[in-house]
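Q: A reviewer asked whether we had any structural model of the full assembly, not just the individual parts. We don't, so I'm hoping you can provide one. Inputs are below.
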Amino acid sequence: MHEYPLTERIVDIAVKTAREHGASRVSAVHLVIGETSGIIPDSVQMYFDLIAEETPAGGAKLIIRQIKPEMHCPECNTNFVRPRFSFACPVCGTLGSPTAIGREFYVESIELETND
Amino acid sequence: MSTEKVTVMEDIYSENDRISDKIHEKLKESGIYAVNVLGAPGTGKTSSLIKMMEGLKGIKPYVVEGDIQSDIDTVKLQRMGIETLQINTGGACHLDAILIENILSKFDLNQKGILFIENIGNLVCPAEFNIGEDIKLLITSATEGADKPYKYPLAFEKASIILLNKSDLAPYVDFDRDYFEKGIRALNPDAPIFYVSAKTGEGFDGVCSWLKAKL
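A: Here is a predicted structure for the entire assembly that you could use as a starting point for your response.
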């Protein structure tokens, strides 16, 4: 549900960046979404096309890179990819603590086209 | 025509966080401590708020009630003489900073005190949006089950204080306290857990002492 206003922010960022660089068109937006960010990539994709239409980002490709969530095992002192519905380290079974990996939700880069 | 790739690295929440910081600054200047109250529908957020405000007698309370629809809780609190404003999101599943910024302009924040912002009943996205608060207070209840930290980890991780409401019902619903605490401790080693009942008032002394120490 809340992907809509967040996708508006993504289009805003793309259009603002195009303006700052004197570009005529945004050809691609590279977005990073962590799997525990609570953001559904398919929804963002759907809204992006709708919201970007009629802006310089209209027709731009949205390229989404997803990131697996990692937890930190205090026993093994290493990170592990969080299994679904568990916090247990796959090596020793100790419950891991959360890390920022998997939470990402940011625009990484934008591809611009400029009329010379 | 030329093309270029520009590195941006801009967080999507940055605009919300900017407004949230502004709200927090304003509340701090007014001497108001803000508590973002999170919890599922029916967990007892409003009932717990009433118990907390009773226990914090002498401290001026302000309340913002967030609901998708209705002003049932607001009317209840206003009848008790508590300054309460309602936000109806119409469908949106959480409160965000701009909604709070807009409604705070309607409060006369001339007296120091505590502001409770009761978020939309939902354990998912309210945890993702900062709304100018000092702390997030999470309420969950025995009847929801002990597995909630495992299913909604972000809310439990971000909470500064956790209340297990309806704890008087725990024996009747086979609430597994060890499993519950183990899940919370993995995510959040520091937040105190208070076992309370908004019906009997049990456990709210501890919650109120903890809050008073923060003010």
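A: Points you may want to mention in the reply: Residues 3-68+100-113 of chain A form a domain with the hypothetical protein PF0899 fold fold (CATH 3.30.2320.50). The radius of gyration of chain A is 18 Å.
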